[in-house]
Amino acid sequence: MPRITDNEDGSQTFAVNSRELKGLGEALGHTVRDVEKVLEVVDGPRFRDALSFVKSIVD
């Protein structure tokens, strides 16, 4: 189980063991393809045009 440790300086440390880290990596590996697709759409001209249109309505 991940642990959060309070440090003396007021900061916090987040710690996971290697098994937990591997599980996180596997979970991210499954979603990376979806994230890459989203980034491609966001970076595309259609999205930019739509965003420009929305901005023109709001401004």
How would you explain this protein's 3D organization?
By secondary structure, this protein is α+β, with helices and mostly antiparallel strands. The chain has a domain at 18-58. It contains two helices and two strands; from the N terminus they run ββαα. Strands 1-2 form a two-stranded antiparallel ribbon. The longest helix is centred in the middle third of the chain and has 26 residues, at 18-43. The mean pLDDT is 85.
Outline of the structure:
It contains 2 helices and 2 strands, in the order ββαα. It has 59 residues and is α+β, with helices and mostly antiparallel strands.
Count of DSSP strands: 2
Number of helices in the DSSP assignment: 2
Strands in their spatial order, largest beta sheet: 1-2
| Dominant shape | elongated
Helix content: 55-70%
- The secondary-structure element order is EEHH
What structural class results from the helix and strand content? alpha+beta
